[in-house]
Amino acid sequence: MNKSDDISSFFSPKGVAIVGASQTPGKIGHEIVRNIKLSGFSGGVFPVNPNAENVLDLKCYGRLSDIRAEVDLAVIAVPAGLVEGVVRDCIEKGVKAAIIITSGFSEVGNKELEERVVSIARRRLRIIGPNTFGVFYAASRLNATFGPGKVLWGKTAFITQSGALGLALMDWTTEEKYGVSSIVSIGNKADVDDADLVEYFSRDPSTSSILIYMEGLRDGRKFFEASRRAVREKPIVVIKAGRSARGARAASSHTGSIAGQDTIFTAAFEQAGIMRAEGMTQAFDWIQALNENPVPKGENVVIVTNGGGLGVLATDKCEGLGLKLAELPNDLKDEIKAITPSFGSVKNPIDLTANADDVLYGKVLDIVLRRRDVDCVIALFCQTANIDPILVAQAMLDARDRDILEKPITAAFVGGHLSQVAYSRMLEKRFAVYPSAERAVDAMYALMARHRQLEKFKGGGELR
Amino acid sequence: MTRRDAHKTVSRVVAAAARSGRRGLLESEADRVAAAYGIRVAESALARSGKEAVLRAKALGFPVVLKVVSKDILHKSDVGGVKAGVSSAAGVRAAYAEILGNVKRAEPEAVVEGILVQRMAPRGHEFVAGATRDPQFGPAVMFGLGGVYVELFRDVSFRLAPLTKGEALDMMGGTKASRLLAGFRGSPPLDVGAAAETLVAVGRLITDVPEIDSIDINPLFVYPRGTLAVDVRIVLRKDAKST
Question: Are A83 and A102 in contact (CB under 8 A)?
Fold first, then answer.
């Protein structure tokens, strides 16, 4: 690897300087220092500001060159007019990576300044931004952002092109107990782009899935090539905004006139093996399922429910998504009949009826999870008058703990307050649980899509 | 023909067209380009007189299709420039004269290079294969249901080029038209493998020849055995070099 290709200094730096550090709470240059300090980063932290003695009890330096210790990452939060000079200082100091927080570049039409900064840095300093809220990387306890100070650790690397949405989601992933391994606000992508990050995270041991919020790409082909390599290691989910936008293209051919921008995006994603989510909800549903579950080893899905209605909804959704409901073998039917003597016939979905309690759920889940001819299970529960959802949730959690054959399970809890408490408890225990049957099925679909993809790779699905 | 020889043949055709300031290749040129990349095209020959047309038709075998060849005419059938199902020498002479008359009336200024005599292809299911260049993703290949309603039904799918045969099969599976390929309502299954190879060839062609802006094969007939490109249209990029 070319040395300048290495972007690891953004994530695991030895020393980080904050150029434009501020003593004033609420200012960006202050919040970043605070977040880095509070996040427990173990490397050197060096605020830089010629007009301050110290920031948050850290010694403040007049210039980058005043710092004796090694600095490989600089977070730049100075006015746009000063960025060029700071970038030169970075190169002189031997800094390898710079996050340019400052806005006022190509996003407001100031392309020339952005290009100049990039050309100064070329081959000596890698840049994330400008116009970004920073980088969070859990494994080094580095929160070099001006976003929320507390971020829940998880397994997903989240790359976002939108600043505001990214900041909101940063908070939200913590609130919803999803967690992230990293957040990169990619800004104007003047240098480091989605393709670089996808490649990095595909090799990052603390990341098991990659989620991207994307509005556009500068180099679609580069992203395509990087992604098709990366999906062999980890699933990539993309929320691509601007589905409706169609590039105005001269229609000199049939092919050209049909090939709207989004058509090609869709095709490229599909070909690369990227999973394209409709929006945030679906993206996080998928990510949650992928992170918290093993990939299914086959196509056979079994649904366990306590309500016929939920079962039908789930069946319809399975049908629509191409998930195969397994035909239950007779010996499996007999096993279930033995513990549910009142049943007439046992079919898939397995309807335990409204009286099913946590004990029955636990037993039936154990039975299906132990079967070699069942590959994944969707467990549905709708709240009834006499059954405690929290106990049923516990039964599902326990069944998962006994799931020695490593089959994926998704679940839905539908109902009022108690169901929501049950739902939250399962989320906390990292169970892929959802508030509706359709979403539990859609989450299983993500796992099945991953299974099919891995099968294709196994079958020698060649790379060109 | 090796890929290198194919590329050479194509470069010559492309350079000649660019020299004469044409962005759209003539049908005969487009056929030659496609054939060089292993795409089976309908056999044809150019005629510059009625007499020549009869000779060509006899050599190819009846029935034949006659099509006007002119850089000034984009939609041949709109100006009465196509006569299909011509099955005798007398018919060929009459069709030749009729086409010239039609064209003269509709497009008096058009320069006519001649009339292409093409062996009438046995009817197959109509598909479309094509390629275009995306500003962000580069060359991409299209497959779908062909015919005049391509834009209406939009039953197509795309893949970035170059593509493997596996990817071509995958892409065909993404269209409703793939049900026709599998054999629909009692019709025999069609040659999916040959169709996939055509798509791979289209992808190679646009990848190898940067001067090409777009390729349209519509219709592409797919038979139970083999395929046939009946109408190949190739447009060059604005800045295509003439050397």
Answer: yes
CA distance B5 to B23: 23
A255 vs B131: CB contact, 8 Å cut-off? yes
Please check whether residues A180 and A280 belong to one and the same domain: yes
CB contacts < 8 Å between A and B, how many? 88
Domain final residue, candidates A242, A266, A292: A292
* Domains identified in chain A, total number: 3
pLDDT tens for residues B92-127? Answer: 999 999 999 999 999 999 999 999 999 998 888 999
For residue B48, the 8-state DSSP code is: S
Q: Give the E-state strand segments of A170-323 in sequence order.
A: 180-185, 209-214, 236-240, 275-277, 300-305
Interface predicted TM-score of the whole assembly (ipTM), two decimals = 0.83
Which tens digits make up the pLDDT trace of A113-147? Answer: 999 999 999 989 999 999 999 999 999 999 999 99
Q: Which domains does chain B have, with CATH numbers?
A: 1-42+122-243 (3.30.470.20), 43-120 (3.30.1490.20)
**Which DSSP letter does residue B211 get?**
T
Q: Do A219 and B136 touch (CB under 8 A)?
A: yes
Nearest to A259 by CA among B150, B234, B40, B134: B134
Same-domain status, A53 and A153:
no
A77: containing domain: 1-131
Tell me, yes or no, if B207 comes closer than 8 A to chain A by beta carbon. Answer: no
Residue listed under structure tokens 């007439």: A344
Nearest of B206, B198, B210, B232 to residue B28 by alpha carbon: B232
pLDDT at position A254 is 62
